[in-house]
Amino acid sequence: MEINWKKEVEARKEALLEDLFTILRIDSVRDDAKATPEMPVGPGPKEALEAFLAIGKRDGFVTKNVGNLAGHIEYGEGDELMGVLGHVDVVPTGTGWDTDPFEPILKDDRIYARGSSDDKGPSMAAYYAIKIIRDLGLPVSKRVRMIIGTDEESGWQCMTHYLQHEEMPDFGFSPDADFPIINGEKGNISLYVRFRGDVAGGKNELISFDAGLRENMVPQDATAIFKSQEAEQIEKDFFEFLENNPVTGTLDVEGDQVTIQLVGKASHGMNPAGGRNAGTYLATFLNNYSFGGDAGEYFRLIAEYIHLEHTAEKLGLSHTDPVMGELTMNAGVFTFAPEVGGTIALNFRYPVGVTAEGLEIKTEAMLSEFGVTIEKSAGKLPHYVPADDPLVKTLLDVYEKHTGLKGKERSIGGGTYGRLMERGVAYGALFPDSIDTMHQANEFLALDDLLRATAIYADAIYELIK
Ligand code: ZN
Ligand code: ZN
Predict the structure, then answer these.
(1) What are the structural domains of the chain?
(2) Which of 134, 164, 202, 385 is most buried, by the most CB atoms less than 10 A from its CB?
(3) What SS3 string covers the chain?
(4) Which of the four pLDDT bands, split at 50, 70 and 90, describes residue 1?
(5) Which residue is catalytic, options 8, 47, 89, 449?
């Protein structure tokens, strides 16, 4: 039976938009200040979850709210379960919006609202896909659950809680990234390199060194404050340093105290080469001077082993997997204070063939001369679903059929819900020609992308559960 999925979506366009707008109107930013046991991540995410489940219930589906953190809408019959994992929480709006981020507006065939593309729009597309399969009364041999989380943008406690209490899907996808597919996600681990805080003994005595806000971002700003006996020379050299390096900055001298502020370029931590790490540039500059005690060693380590080392070659950690790509390292947060000591937070995204334990042991051995201690964060293992898995093949086939474009497997350094299932991937809803506005001001979803994605999801889900 040949089904015209596009036509079925077109017939439900108004209803789809109305339901999506209902969810987009809810400010579902996580709010820990208002969290209670009844609302574990605040009132907004819970309200959005309830509203989504209410739509499923209205349409006659079995729905379930699991601890006000996650929930599902289920369809079909059979032992096997397919999961479609989306989320209704959103990141804070930030500044720079031309319209109210929680009053969706359709303008120039684009839906503007916080969450339109991440991830309320794609989640609603996936829901309507399931609804179309049900409306058409197509025979299915498996069950499918639209599983909705409320804490994707922070700690994932929604899905953790859900999977502790509910059945683990046998396979599935998350509509929270890009087409054609993301079937590989690198592992993610941070190592904290810690120094003691001795600063005595040099011509320069460090008062503080700080750079970076988060482990998964390249530091845009860095600041060093120190007492100096060679301020004049440092000031002279600093302007030459600025001329020869892709950073900007200021240097202030007050008595014998020098303050340097450096500005680089932020980037996502999974793409350190896309940024300019203000922290490593500043430490490398300061490494040219005599800093006493641990502070001097702190700068030397950064200059010799971290600066511009996006693939951690000098630490002996570089590794490239032919399918998942290379290991990357981002030095995301730097702090040094005489009383407390120093820390460098190194965030790694690594392919299969590398282990977190191996990274820790090798780093420890390589840096032993510095007298540092190394501590490892909790992490995520690499996740990969082979290209010949029927799930990947089916999803790529459907994508090719609908777009006329070639579907290829792809790995990324970020993480989506897809990794929660052994046979789980991310699938849409951004197309290769879409403009990615996720997490930005004036976030939008192109109406055409919403409709195209809905048709693809309907076709793909049906192929996988029929
Ligand atoms: Zn998302
Ligand atoms: Zn997001």
Answers:
(1) 5-186+382-465 (3.40.630.10), 188-376 (3.30.70.360)
(2) 385
(3) CCCCHHHHHHHCHHHHHHHHHHHHCCCCECCHHHCECCECCCHHHHHHHHHHHHHHHHCCCEEEEECCCEEEEEEECCCCEEEEEEECCECCCCCCCCCCCCCCEEECCEEECCCCCCCHHHHHHHHHHHHHHHHCCCCCCCEEEEEEECCCCCCCHHHHHHHHHCCCCCEEEECCEECCCECEECEEEEEEEEECCCCCCCCEEEEEEEECCCCCECCCEEEEEEEECCHHHHHHHHHHHHHHCCCEEEEEEECCEEEEEEECECCECCCHHHCECHHHHHHHHHCCCCECHHHHHHHHHHHHHHCCCCCCCCCCCCCEECCCEECEEEEEEEEEECCCEEEEEEEEEECCCCCHHHHHHHHHHHCHHHCCEEEECCCECCEECCCCCHHHHHHHHHHHHHHCCCCCCCEECCCCHHHHCCCEEECCEECCCCCCCCCCCCCEEEHHHHHHHHHHHHHHHHHHHC
(4) low
(5) 89
